């Protein structure tokens, strides 16, 4: 009989989980903003045009930070277009996505939306067609109290109190040929360093993210990170990673093994960061901002058809992937991988948040619903706060096209400040349930407070407006606690959340 064992000890700490690991991303792309978070005239819209039903879903996810306004969009964006009276803001052609940006929602509006959604802004500056001067000006506009040209303009535009944006991205995917203002590693490293030092001269409290290469399999990977960080290491705090996965061939076992690729990617970037730090005899360690991650492939053909029919349209329905159950399983495995690297992955952004490759979908004038990937993200964000523990896992394995010895059961564990433990586990087995035995002797007698299971018999099952709960979590059955051991049954192909508390505690 198949069986998996997880040994946990409260002294085997990986690191404190930074809440920003559960961040997300909204770009001026498709219906993320217009028709997503913002739809004047919608039955739930507030006086500023923000959909309250969407805000409720965002708050349910517990998103601590949202990257904005791009993405590829930001490399051609003039931030000044997004301030001042709406009727005076220019309409611009967005070369990144072939649409027209109206700037109806700008910096002030998004800051107000973030406040209502209970999140912070992670703002990206344009280092494609702009540079250090524009970057330091937008920091002054957002964060300086007053008494300078840009901060006084913010006050005249209705925001007496600074926005206080503390996390900033230095451009986006600057090695990509699709990027406006593409640069070599040396060119970008120099530009990022100059922008970084000037931005921190304006506000020394901010943190900055330098662009890593745009993909793990990019020809620039590795050499890009090393050269960029060689130029700007002392003035930045994080380096970015982006990774998307797809399953166009329907190979479920291979698809669910992609979190192994993710783990290797993280460790390779950490090694490069530390190599540059060692070269410079640096006292600080550079951490990672995995500020774009998701499944993305379902909408590729549809996007070509949309742009062919209506290029330069406003808020076109682009990148609207409809996620199925196996996508949720991989999202869970990705979150487990982040937790097992919590000592260096401090920021991560599920890309994106609403409509565009997103956990939340809307219909213009209609409803809002949670896609399948919503659930692992919500569970991790809600219960994955505290200290990530290093699990020792023994599991049956399988081989697939790209990987050997893939564990059928993968998992992570987080210890809360109150001594509780939450175990997150994925069973990749297509046919069989697998019992997971958690050895918790170091914690004393523990009991199962809750076992949440996400499972569906059809890996291609999806949620829709008409059937929003087709793939939804349910209560697990059959778990038992015996002294310092807890055993739960993980159904075949399932995401599991096992919440454990001390005997005698609620």
What's this, in brief?
The chain folds into two domains: 4-9 and 388-502, Immunoglobulin-like (Sandwich); 19-383, Alpha-Beta Barrel (TIM Barrel), CATH 3.20.20. Helix content is 26%, strand content 25%. It has helices at 52-61, 107-117, 132-143, 149-156, 185-202, 223-232, 252-256, 258-279, 300-310, 325-339, 374-383; strands at residues 4-7, 13-16, 23-25, 65-68, 92-94, 99-101, 120-125, 167-170, 207-210, 238-245, 287-295, 345-351, 360-362, 368-370, 387-389, 392-394, 397-398, 406-407, 409-415, 421-427, 434-439, 446-455, 474-475, 480-482, 485-490, 494-502.
Which stretches of 5+ consecutive residues score pLDDT under 50? none
Number of strands: 26
Give the strand order of the largest sheet, numbering strands 1, 2, ... along the chain. 3-4-7-8-9-10-11-12
Portion in strands: 15-25%
- Please tell me what the overall shape is: globular
CATH C-level of the largest domain = Alpha Beta
Description of the molecule:
The protein has 506 residues and is an alpha/beta fold. The protein has two domains: 4-9 and 388-502, Immunoglobulin-like (Sandwich), CATH 2.60.40; 19-383, TIM Barrel, CATH 3.20.20. It is 26% helix and 25% strand. The chain is built from eleven helices and 26 strands. It has helices at 52-61, 107-117, 132-143, 149-156, 185-202, 223-232, 252-256, 258-279, 300-310, 325-339, 374-383; strands spanning 4-7, 13-16, 23-25, 65-68, 92-94, 99-101, 120-125, 167-170, 207-210, 238-245, 287-295, 345-351, 360-362, 368-370, 387-389, 392-394, 397-398, 406-407, 409-415, 421-427, 434-439, 446-455, 474-475, 480-482, 485-490, 494-502. The strands form six sheets. It has an eight-stranded parallel β-barrel, surrounded by six helices. The protein has a seven-stranded antiparallel β-sheet with strand order 2-15-19-20-26-22-23, with helices on one face. Helix 5 packs parallel to helix 6 and helix 8 (258-279) packs parallel to helix 10. The chain is globular, with a radius of gyration of 23 Å. The relative contact order is 0.15. The model has no long low-confidence stretch (mean pLDDT 96).
């Amino acid at each position: 009989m198949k069986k998996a064992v997880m040994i946990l000890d409260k002294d085997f700490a990986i690191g404190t989980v930074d809440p920003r690991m559960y961040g997300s991303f909204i770009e001026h792309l498709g219906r993320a903003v217009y028709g997503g978070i913002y739809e004047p005239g919608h039955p739930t819209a507030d006086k500023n045009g923000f959909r309250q039903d969407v805000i409720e879903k965002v708050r349910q996810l517990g998103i601590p930070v949202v990257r904005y306004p791009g993405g590829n969009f930001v490399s051609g964006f003039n931030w000044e277009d997004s301030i001042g009276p709406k009727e005076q803001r220019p309409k611009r052609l967005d070369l990144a996505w072939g649409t027209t940006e109206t700037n109806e929602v700008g910096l002030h509006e998004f800051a107000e939306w973030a406040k209502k959604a209970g999140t912070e802004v992670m703002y990206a500056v344009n280092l494609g067609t702009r540079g250090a001067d524009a970057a330091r000006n937008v920091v002054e506009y957002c964060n300086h109290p007053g008494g300078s040209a840009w901060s006084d303009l913010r006050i005249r535009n209705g925001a007496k109190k600074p926005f206080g944006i503390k996390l900033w991205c230095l451009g986006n995917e600057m090695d990509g040929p699709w990027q406006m203002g593409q640069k070599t590693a040396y060119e970008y490293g120099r530009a990022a360093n100059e922008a970084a030092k000037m931005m921190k001269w304006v506000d020394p409290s901010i943190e900055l993210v330098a662009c890593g290469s745009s993909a793990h399999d990019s020809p620039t990977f590795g050499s890009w990170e090393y050269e960029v960080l060689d130029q700007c290491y002392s003035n930045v705090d994080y380096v970015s990673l982006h990774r998307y996965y797809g399953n166009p061939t329907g190979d479920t076992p291979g698809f669910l093994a992609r979190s192994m690729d993710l783990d290797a990617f993280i460790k390779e970037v950490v090694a490069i960061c530390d190599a540059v730090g060692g070269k410079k005899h640096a006292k600080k360690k550079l951490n990672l901002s995995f500020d774009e991650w998701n499944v993305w492939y379902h909408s590729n053909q549809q996007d070509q058809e949309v742009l062919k029919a209506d290029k330069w349209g406003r808020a076109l329905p682009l990148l609207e992937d409809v996620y199925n159950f196996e996508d949720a399983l991989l999202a869970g495995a990705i979150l487990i991988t982040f937790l097992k690297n919590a000592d260096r992955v401090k920021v991560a952004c599920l890309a994106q948040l609403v409509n565009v490759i997103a956990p939340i979908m809307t219909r213009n004038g209609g409803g809002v619903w949670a896609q399948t990937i919503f659930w692992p993200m919500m569970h991790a964000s809600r219960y994955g706060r505290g200290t990530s523990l290093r699990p020792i896992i023994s599991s049956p394995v399988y081989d697939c096209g790209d990987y050997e010895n893939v564990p059928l059961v993968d998992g992570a564990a987080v210890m809360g400040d109150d001594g509780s433990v939450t175990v997150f586990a994925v069973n990749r087995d297509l046919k069989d349930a697998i019992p997971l035995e958690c050895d918790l002797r170091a914690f004393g007698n523990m009991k199962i407070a809750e076992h949440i299971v996400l499972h569906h018999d059809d890996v291609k099952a999806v949620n829709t407006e008409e059937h929003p709960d087709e793939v939804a979590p349910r209560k697990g059955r059959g778990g038992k606690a015996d002294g310092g051991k807890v055993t739960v049954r993980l159904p075949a192909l399932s995401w599991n959340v096992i919440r454990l508390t001390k005997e005698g505690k609620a």
